[in-house]
Design a protein that fits this description.
This protein is of the alpha+beta class. It has helices at 3-8, 44-56, 125-139, and strands spanning 9-20, 25-32, 37-42, 88-90, 93-98, 102-108, 115-121, 159-161. Strands 4-3-2-1-7-6-5-8 form an 8-stranded mixed beta sheet. It is globular.
């Protein structure tokens, strides 16, 4: 990898989900490992495809009372604070790569845009799905069906969601 390619890949250490009414999109405010924030916009269509992939693999909402997620809709931890001078862009696709302890998400924009990587621990997947469901509830978008239990037998395959 050249130094130019290194500059295009940003690693997030934390993210906050939220719905933005004027944009009518889900926003993901991420904290980069260097301490700066980045805002990614994700369309309803892309989120539906992303969630469908997880539901098809057997992942569902955790039982009530077990939700821990960085989300402005239900803040239990400090949300990522986005500064208007920090970069923002529209996510066009997401590569999903499961590993033993986590799932790696590679968020991609336009062909020449930066790529953002985020590793979600397996134990947080259900809570992360609930965060998206809450965004759909606030947006008054049609319901996402997530079931009611997280399966320990879930098997997620590597895929790119467009």
């Amino acid at each position: 990898m050249t130094s130019d390619e290194d500059e295009l890949l940003v690693t997030l250490t934390r993210m906050t989900l939220g719905y933005d009414q004027p944009q009518d999109r889900i926003r993901v405010d991420g904290l980069a490992s260097g301490g700066t924030s980045i805002r990614m916009w994700i369309t309803q269509r892309l989120v539906r495809r992303l969630i469908a992939h997880f539901v098809d693999a057997g992942y569902h909402m955790p039982p009530q009372g077990k939700v821990r997620i960085h989300s402005e809709i239900n803040v239990e931890e400090e949300p990522v604070i986005y500064s208007s001078c920090d970069p923002e862009w529209l996510v066009q696709s997401i590569d999903i790569t499961p590993r033993q302890d986590d799932i790696v998400f590679l968020f991609k924009g336009a062909a020449d845009a930066s790529k953002i990587i985020f590793c979600l621990p397996n134990a947080s997947i259900g809570s992360w799905l609930v965060g998206f469901k809450r965004c759909f509830d606030v947006a008054d978008w049609p319901i996402i069906s997530l079931g009611s239990n997280v399966s320990s037998e879930s098997e997620l395959e590597s895929i790119t969601v467009h």
